[in-house]
Every structure is written in C-alpha cells, then in structure tokens.
Amino acid sequence: GAQWFGTTLAFSTYVNTAFFIAGGTAAGHTLARILGAAILGSAVELSRGAPGAVARQVWRNAPSFVVPAAALLLANYFNSLSLLRCGITLTYVMKAASPVATLLLCAMGAGKLPRLR
After folding, report:
1. Helices marked H in the chain — which ranges?
2. Continuous segment of H or E residues that includes residue 110
3. C-alpha closest to that of 40 among 78, 93, 2
C-alpha cells in the first residue's frame, strides 16, 4: 500500500510526461513502476524483520498472489499505454469514471449492486 503510493508519487504528472517525452515506452514505464514498488517494498519489509523469515513468508504466500499480480501488471501496462497515447488528462478522467462503469455493469446483471446505507 504505502510503497505503491510512494512510487506513484515519484511518477507523478511531470515525471510521467518527462519519461514519455524522452522516448520511454509503455512497457518501460510499467517496468519502472513495478520494479520501484518491489524494491521499496522489499526494503521496508526487510527492515522490519529477519531476511530469512521474510523470504519464507513471500514463498509461502506467492501462489495466492499470481492472478492478482498478473491483473495488476496488465492494468498498469494499459494505464502506461493510455498515458503515452492519450495523455494524462484523458487517462485520469477515464480512470475516474471506472466506478460509474462498474455500477452500470452491475445494474445490467454482471454482478451485485452495492447497498446504500
């Protein structure tokens, strides 16, 4: 959570723009974000406990995260592709509209609608 937030801050609007102006690719952008989050996350976790215990915990839990990790990687790649092709403003307007699309799909029978409290 916090590690991802930190790398997102580091790759804010100005850095995203500079990365793509310099000739960066969507795959390169995704790789930089994922590696940055992995390095920062690993450093934080290793500072909290013994490296051996952290490694055992990662290997024990890794199979549970294969599908969510692949989905996150794909979502980040498509986000980077959108930033490259459509620009920052349109990308984030469309991302902000995602909850509306989710509600519409649920209303059409693709899932349960959340209850209002």
Report:
1. 2-10, 13-21, 26-48, 51-61, 66-86, 88-96, 98-105
2. none
3. 2
Nearest to 54 by CA among 65, 42, 63, 39: 42
Q: How confident is the model at residue 15 (pLDDT cuts 50, 70, 90)?
A: confident
User: What tokens appear for 8 in the block?
Assistant: 């997102």
Which of 37, 41, 26 has the alpha carbon at shortest distance from 76? 26
CA angle, residues 36, 80, 15, in degrees to nearest 5: 60
Mean pLDDT of 27-40: 89
